[in-house]
Design brief:
- The complex is a heterodimer of chains A (496) and B (392).
- Chain A is built from 16 helices and 15 strands.
- With 496 residues, chain A is an alpha/beta fold.
- In chain A, a hairpin with a 5-residue loop joins β2 and β3.
- The N and C termini of chain A lie far apart (72 Å).
- With 392 residues, chain B is an alpha+beta fold.
- In chain B, 45% of the residues lie in helices and 15% in strands.
- In chain B, α10 crosses α11.
- Chain B is globular and about 60 Å long.
- The chains are: A alpha/beta (496), B alpha+beta (392).
- The interface between A and B is large, with 101 and 111 residues.
- β1 of chain A pairs parallel with β3 of chain B.
Chain lengths: 496, 392
């Protein structure tokens, strides 16, 4: 090997041919090593021929669906168990119940294993078992050395089937949730994140519901057990395993550990009719910090509606990545913010459209104007052909990164299925993205971006809203915490 | 960026820390040559377009990560106090004053001094053939040369920590030596304040830093084991005692910072659980440390820590981009990427007596600096100028 440059050091680790390696189509014919392209357009790439491995899927008689993917590249196994149970299922008087139940599965001990022993056992294996509770789903994800697969699976089975909801652990959980409530407003970014949701969905919506000191009170062992019995059942639940395992053996373990699990089938979750919250306009939460958080938005789209693919393309053009219009306008051209991004989100009932950025207070008005221009521009004329092609290329070429690890392959299949995506979603995705044209983007922009419906939230000092007021914009001050007694002057509640 | 995005880049970004600047991107395997073209051109003939706009963007990054972030602000203040007068005490993102005074010429000069082939290490991980990659690299990078530097120039420029005056061809290890052993003289304790307070409109936070040596000092690896023992998993000492049993903290975190090339800090952070104060959490932490110093930890705990270190090492190999970062990091900081592999054996040999020794020696009051974030009531405070991080 000729040394490339004086002492520039290269470390090469070719990982070809592994289970999930991204196999390029055979040896790429390098046009004579000495020949160097001077422009990216001059390069020609061999097509990527890659078909993601398909996990082996089956359903146990009790309704538990199981997906297993063998991949022996590292002595690790990963898995996830996804339940149809989430914060949307909280009783209105006991908001936080789903979260408490999820956390206590991991921390509250089981009928036969004290909580301390569970912690010790997991840590001693160098394994991890973590529970995440979202609005719709609770997931229990785990990772272990492959030699410990059976032990960790047995533990997971015990945790989710036989939780003890021990009293002292429940009290600890409630104390910790109380501390999280007190810390909810520690970071200005979180304030903007949550309070814009309140404004857009309206306080009555379950999408704007959060635990408070009051809703924690009724969380009891009895409430936890009832919630667990109703939602943590095999029917509608999905288990995924991936990594260094033998699929047939793993299936037998699953059969032994989960086969005799019984429970009522998960009830379908009714939809909520979202009426929407605050009137369009500018809202302000005073915060004595040297940067303003600016969030604008309105209601978004239902999940997987007829505009789904066109919205995917529009979102790339509007506000995702370094080449999006928001990024180019707000950051690259004008240097107003470090982060800026936005998208029309989809949701089980309705998603949210939102744009978020942070800028020094006196520039908030300028940044807002730039955002409005971008949105208006997309409604007025279809994007340039070049922008649409860029969006197609981005999705097409980075598609392989959906399959970057065996765990990721299984996990995303399971989540998609749990959220109601069709089984062939990824198989047809690129084709459908590539069929989206500029006129489609304009059509969905006109349908889903409504500048006259925008709710704007500014979190920051008065200097952030002064220029808006000076220009004649009405700015409504709202309290930081919707639960706290409203003491601020001129505070005006969001219109129902 | 448009070219990278059109070609399917994932995780395209750059980061600067105390010791190194990294540029990373993941691309589909058939795009290796594109990467060679883009990076070699950028290093050879890069220009700094839109410098002043980007400088404004960095001021917003500073406001975001430091000035409006309770932990960001507390951490910056802690480092400024612990390393007053030292490069490790200067915020990487720069002070607002520094940022506002930056000129294109400063950036060009910094680049000329530091962005040189003898300072750079590249790691490629993924599905390619080594011979082919070598040939492509040869084609694209072999004519990249650093501009000649005047003799004895090192160390003066900007936030540079070490000079670049290594002998030509000396390679990264020689050019960028780890500076260790200074821990007993400069840096540690001395006349610096042992406590700093930051006011911010949020609930309280606590950070405790302890001056300690870094690789190749033989004590450095022991901290990795100590870290796992203190805070690795729910059964670890601090999680079990402070979060579950005594319930004085909502959570804790431990790490080393701010860099690895000079003697650094072992840091224990905590989120107090009301009604307990940061000061109560602090004394609880000190009590637990005293227990480790007083008697050896049980063999079973040590075995658990070894198992966890091993498992997390294997997990670290799972992602191509993560592995590439580790390879460059180890090669630059420790002079040899293989140190990544040795670390595991070294951690395996750490004993209970070793942990007693480092806790007694380094986690001692004279090496400790404590930062406490105190709740500032809204409307109670005058807005402070974004200037000095350190107390005099």
């Amino acid at each position: 090997m000729k040394t490339p440059a004086a002492a520039l050091i290269f470390l090469l680790l070719p990982l070809a041919g592994q289970g999930t390696g991204l196999a390029a189509a055979g040896p790429v014919a390098t046009p004579a090593a000495a020949q160097r392209a001077s422009r990216p357009e001059d390069l020609r790439f061999e097509p990527l021929r890659y078909k993601p491995p398909a996990p082996k899927s089956s359903t146990l008689p009790n309704g538990l669906s199981v997906s297993i993917l063998e991949d022996r590249s590292l002595p690790l196994v990963e898995g996830v168990l996804v339940f149809q149970a989430g914060a949307l299922d909280d009783p209105p008087a006991a908001v936080g119940l789903a979260e408490a139940v999820g956390d206590l599965l991991r921390t509250g001990g089981t009928l036969t294993r004290p909580a301390e022993e569970v912690d010790q056992e997991i840590d001693f294996m160098g394994a991890s078992i973590d529970v995440t509770v979202g609005p719709e789903l609770t997931s229990v994800s785990f990772s272990a050395l492959s030699r410990d697969l059976e032990k960790v699976l047995a533990l997971v089975s015990d945790l989710v089937r036989n939780p003890a909801f021990r009293k002292d652990r429940l009290n600890l959980e409630k104390a910790q949730m109380g501390e999280e409530i007190r810390r909810r407003w520690d970071n200005p970014g979180d304030i903007a994140e949550l309070r814009l949701e309140d404004l857009v969905y309206g306080a009555a919506s379950r999408w704007a519901r959060r635990p408070t000191e009051h809703t924690l009170e009724p969380l009891s062992q009895r409430a936890c057990r009832a919630f667990h019995a109703a939602h943590f059942t095999p029917g509608g639940t999905r288990l995924g395993l991936a990594g260094d395992l033998n699929a047939a053996q793993a299936r037998r373990m699953v059969q032994t550990l989960f086969g005799r699990w019984r429970g009522p089938a998960a009830r379908p979750r009714p939809h909520e009719e979202i009426k929407g919250g605050a009137a369009p306009g500018v809202y302000w939460i005073e915060r004595d910090v040297p940067q303003a958080q600016v969030a604008v938005g309105h209601l978004g789209a239902p999940r997987l509606g007829p505009d789904h693919y066109a919205l995917e393309v529009m979102n790339l053009i509007v506000g995702s990545g370094f080449t999006s219009r928001l990024f180019r306008e707000v950051r690259t051209a004008r240097g107003l913010a470090y982060h800026v991004g936005g998208r029309v989100g989809e949701g089980y009932d309705r998603g949210i459209f939102r744009v978020d950025l942070q800028t020094q207070p006196p520039q908030a008005a300028a940044a807002l104007a730039a955002v409005r221009d971008v949105l208006q521009g997309l409604r007025e004329s279809p994007p340039e052909a070049e922008e649409v092609r860029l969006a197609h290329d981005r999705q097409t070429n980075r598609f392989v990164f959906n399959f970057a690890s065996p765990g990721a392959i299984v996990e995303q299949r399971i989540y998609r299925a749990a959220l109601g995506y069709p089984a062939d979603y990824l198989d047809t995705y690129l084709e459908r993205i590539q069929a989206v044209g500029g006129e489609d983007v304009r059509r969905v922009a006109r349908a889903h971006l409504q500048p006259d419906r925008l709710v704007t939230l500014v979190v920051g000092p008065e200097s952030a809203v002064a220029p808006l007021r000076a220009a004649g914009t009405e700015v409504r001050r709202i309290p930081l915490d919707p639960e706290a007694p409203q003491t601020g002057p001129a505070s005006q509640p969001a219109q129902p | 960026m448009q070219i990278y995005e059109a070609n399917g880049s994932a995780g395209l970004n750059a980061s600067t820390d105390k010791d190194l600047t990294s540029y990373y991107v993941s691309l589909p395997a058939n795009r290796l040559e594109l990467w060679c073209l883009m990076e070699s051109e950028r290093l050879r003939d890069g220009v700094l377009r839109e410098f002043y706009t980007e400088r404004d963007v960095v001021t917003e990054e500073r406001r975001l990560r430091v000035e409006t972030s309770p932990l960001g602000k507390l951490y910056e203040t802690l480092l400024g106090t612990a390393f007053a007068g030292d490069a490790y005490g200067i915020p990487t993102v720069g002070t607002m004053e520094d940022l506002q005074g930056l000129r294109t010429a400063d950036a060009l000069e910094f680049r000329r001094r530091h962005y040189r082939p003898e300072n750079a290490v590249v790691a490629l991980v993924g599905d390619f053939r080594a011979e082919q990659a070598i040939s492509l690299i040869d084609t694209y990078f072999s004519d990249w040369r650093g501009e000649p530097l005047e003799a004895k120039s090192g160390g003066a420029g900007g936030a540079g920590v070490v000079g670049t005056g290594g002998a030509p061809g000396a390679g990264t290890a020689a050019a960028l030596p780890a500076v260790s052993g200074a821990v007993d003289s400069a840096g540690a304790a001395g006349s610096r304040p042992s406590r700093v307070e930051v006011k911010f409109p949020s609930q309280p936070y606590l950070l405790m830093g302890f001056n300690k040596p870094v690789y190749p000092h033989p004590d450095a690896v022991k901290f990795q084991v100590l870290d796992e023992h203190l805070n690795g998993g729910r059964s670890s000492l601090l999680q079990r005692r402070l979060v579950v049993e005594r319930q004085v903290a909502l959570d804790l975190f431990t790490f080393e910072g701010p860099g690895q090339r000079r003697d650094n800090l072992f840091i224990i952070g905590a989120i107090p659980q009301a009604p307990h104060t940061a000061a109560e959490v602090e004394s609880a932490i000190l009590e637990e440390l005293a227990v480790i110093a007083a008697r050896p930890i049980p063999e079973k705990d040590l075995q658990k820590v070894r198992n966890r270190v091993q498992a997390s090492f294997i997990r670290g190999l799972a992602s191509n981009s993560g592995l590439a970062s580790q390879l460059t990091y180890f090669h630059i900081l420790y002079g040899d990427w293989k140190q990544l592999l040795r670390l595991l054996e070294q951690a395996d040999r750490v004993t209970a007596a070793d942990l007693q020794q480092i806790v007694t020696r380094y986690l001692a009051p004279d090496r400790r600096v404590t930062g406490e974030l105190v709740t500032q009531e809204e409307g109670a405070a005058a807005p402070e100028p974004p200037a000095p991080e350190t107390k005099p």
